[in-house]
């Protein structure tokens, strides 16, 4: 399950479509995958 903030971050980074493609991976990997995606997004936005 992704929190609303996770969706907002993904949309802000322009990878909204990636959420659907990576949904299964995120579900399997758990919170760690979400954190990695968030960190990569933040680094790319800087």
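Q: What amino acid sequence fits the structure above?
A:
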């Amino acid at each position: 399950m992704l929190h609303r903030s996770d969706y907002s971050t993904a949309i802000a980074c322009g990878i909204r479509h990636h959420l659907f493609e990576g949904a299964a991976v995120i579900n399997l990997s758990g919170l760690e995958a979400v954190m990695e995606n968030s960190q990569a997004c933040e680094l790319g936005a800087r």
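Q: And what stands out in the fold?
A: The mean pLDDT is 63.
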